[in-house]
Amino acid sequence: MILVLMIGILLVGGLTCWLVAQRYPLMGRLIALIAVIIAFLLPVGWYAQYASELTVTGNNWLIDYQVNWIPAFGISFHLAMDGLSFIMILLTFLLGMLSVLCSWNEVREKTGFYFFNLLWTLAGIAGVFVAMDLFLFYFFWEVMLVPMYFLIAIWGDFNRRYAAYKFFIFTQTGGLLMLLAILALYFIHAQQNGGQFTFDYFALLNTTFDNNVTARWIMLGFLIAFVIKLPMVPLHNWLPDAHSEAPTAGSLILAGLLLKTGAYGIIRFVLTLFPEASASIAWWAMLLGVVGIVYGALLAFAQTDLKRLIAYTSVSHMGFVLLGVFAFREIALQGVVMQLLTHGVSTGALFVLAGMLKERLHTRDINQMGGLWTAMPHMGALAMVFVMASLGLPFLGNFIAEFLILMGAFEVSPVLTIIASAGLVLSALYSLRIMQKVFQGQLQTVSEPPKDLSAREWIIMASLTATIIFLGLYPQPVLDTVQGFVAQLARSNL
Amino acid sequence: MNSLLAYIPALPLLGFIILSLFGRRSPKPVIAWVGAGTVCLAALITIAVGVAFMQSTPANGAYSQLLWSWFRVGALSVDINLRVDALTLVFIFIITFVGALIHIYSAFFMWHDRDMARFFASMNLFVCSMLLLVMADNLVLLYLGWEGVGLCSYLLIGFWYEVPSNSRAANKAFLITRIGDTALLIGLFLLFKELGTLNMNAIQQQAPQHFTTGSADIVLITVLLLVGGMGKSAQMPLQTWLPDAMAGPSPVSALIHAATMVTAGVYLIARMHGLFLLSPVTMAIVAIVGAVTLLVAGCSALAQTDIKRILAYSTISQIGYMFLALGVGAWSAAIFHFFTHAFFKALLFLAAGVVIEALHHEHNIFRMGGLRKRMPEVFITFLAGAAALSALPLVTAGFFSKDAILWYSWSSAGGTSVLWFMALVGAFITALYSTRLMLVVFWGEMRTPVHQQPDRGMVIPLIILAFFSITAGFIEWPHNMLHLSLFSDHVQQVLPATVMKRDLPSEWLFQAIATVITLTGVYIGYMLYYGKSGVRWQQSPPLAATRDFFFSGWKFDQLYNFLFVKPFLFLTRVNKSDVIDKLYNGIAQAGLRLNGWFSVSQNGSLRLYIVGVLAGILFIITLQLLL
Fold this sequence. Notes:
The complex is a heterodimer of chains A (494) and B (627). By secondary structure, chain A is mainly alpha-helical.
């Protein structure tokens, strides 16, 4: 029930925002903020109560809520949460709160509709992480897509139309393939079980395929949808445009959450539904992951548009996810979950910083910046933290993630892992370039220097900083939470 | 004692946290007291721990304190666990004691800087990371410290970030060391794959059973660790960042780029000696890297004109000696040279900082001169440092440590006459450039007036360091002179004793040769640079070309620029707009084009439609007739 409440409050909150904000803009913002905070507190409070159960009883599924929806087609409204889902939900609402906060002053037109879209995207994302019925999953997959399209197309930057179209077409193509794959799986399962039609995830887990070719094609349908979202080179081209044109909160959600749905989908559905088929393409997937790491990093280094630069770093970092997932090792998979979490926080923070810079300087071109440390020492110091996080400095969470992924993948393929490790040098190249171009050098402003962080901005950045340091020094709670799911997955796929 | 260990790195960390949160609004005395005070307290605790250690060696030869479990996944379990044994004790003593002196000096040196709080915050974080590096009981925690010191080095080299060349130097240092760090990381992966643990004690114990001597795995692992060490310790061919790192403030050079961080590679190899002993090939490589580096860097030091760059190249060269010693298996000699070098090189950098400040930020030694009379305290202390650097026999600490390395580079089981000869030539060069530095800066006529005298607080650390530069060597004498070997007895609780060759010539002979060579170096330096003659002999074309070659650090920067930097920049610039995007744009364009073509057919002309219909009918009929 708690899961329904959590998603419902966002949907209702979004609608209320839309209605109220036309008269009272401030009320609209407050409602949005309160709705997300409640949605955040619901699972957290619940988890605090039942956390011990997870480690003691070994029962992965903490909540399981199922009611019939369209029984004739075997569609049910089935939400469930295990450790993995909980971690993803946590990230969703943490970044959700911050995305509301960071659009506080940035959005001036159609505020109500803006927050409606924001909350509905969040609801869709949260739904994706807990839906255990494939039809419902597909439904939420689309719910998060459409409002995001509006966020980019209406409140985006100069080239927003192009970016929004591109984003929509890429993800929709993937979505279509996934729909076909879901239907194929649905019919095959029914055939085997004497006409028992169901979209339920747990039922479909038992599907066996008589022939590997079918399994592989259906698996590819899912996989392509997910790797477009992830994104994997060469299907990444929607990302730099969408990330750089979206408003700050949009970039934050895109980089922090939407990419994670792709990774989540691979872990939750591709690996568990098609263990043999995914093992058979594992090496190729790892290879493409490594290609992504290197290729994304090279492109990131070349960019002069700050948001585009950060967008390409995501391509590089998500390559680690692909590498780790298809290594099928417990250590690597734990690293992948850490990477989802820490990349969400650190890259989200970089996008927020880029948004703050754009608000002050009205440009994203790093060649027109420089010396900003002098004017904004606090922002400079915080930027340093997240730049260091993105290059994988120990002390900060991203190191744990990348270390575990590489360590796990090394057992499987030393050569690919060594090439991936070269990505660590490349990440230092592009990360330090950000600091050098933006914050170091002579301050060059014609008018008065830009102001340092405001109180609202402090709250945003301080919570992100605290999170990333905590994850770096004491990641064990996260590892323990997903341990059950990951260990099972590694066992069954080995 | 166990429970005290955590305070040693925690105190500087506390300083870092206080200064980074409240530093900007704090008055300068508070910043100075917090910044220097925390490190001084850490030094006091270290000394207390050290005294207790000396009085009664703890069980298992080490104190240890478990703080918390960092992460545990499957078979991998990594703790934040501090461990202090005899080897670590030497390092933490140098880090906190020399570190405290440098912090006190910095409180005066940085007093007028706008960003004094940022400076001390970074310095404190550095001390904390460096302590974690040497106190770690597992390689992941060591790596945390390893990267932490890299970060602080980056922050402090680029401390005056408004000058673009400074931030370039900082980036260069970070990147080149990162290459080494990545090799080290891959080494860790391989070690874990082979042994299933990253705890250093467990590795040392299990390695001899698991690996056969000289097998491919162990060679690969040790080479990867070595590359990591070469990056941090600025050994060939990853040495090019250190001279540029002199862009940072002088105390930074003294602490990070002379006394502590750059010797992390030495620590790593000494700590992992159990692995290196299993791989004779790697040991030979370590020795050769050290020997080549000490010559190459020594030659470069001869040609520099910037006082700090001379010292930087000299540091590279001295660390080369340490690597040479490690490579021939003279473990305690390497650590002993680290010990004495930390005092005299920190002293030289700090004294150079005073000189540079006094002369309006003049770095060129040929625009200094005649400071002997004007700055007598600096002169005396600098003289002590330079004498120790050139290893003047019996009266300086440098002699005792360097003489041991020279002796072992021939006499130990891994030593050869070639290595010894290279080390000997290096000793000659060291004496030569030290003399040059001394004479040009402190003798001759005054070319730049002294505009301020150093504060008392800066001179006192110099005097203390000068004292140790002279006396620190007396705790370890050559065996033929005096049976006093406190230092090697201490570190050999952890490190193995050096294996010697049989039927060696007398050690006296080697000492006599080394002494003659050193004094010759000093004498030739005196001949060349006393008075004005130094300028004249450099004018002849072949000599000038050689000098330029040495001056540029053997053209390594140009070579790397050509081999790596330019191709990389070209590659990234060409593909800035992502070639894969062309594919998708192509699909979109093709769609538009097709749309254009088909639109033409739908033009409302009835005649054309009829023609189309007829053609279609005709086509179908023909097809049917044919089939």
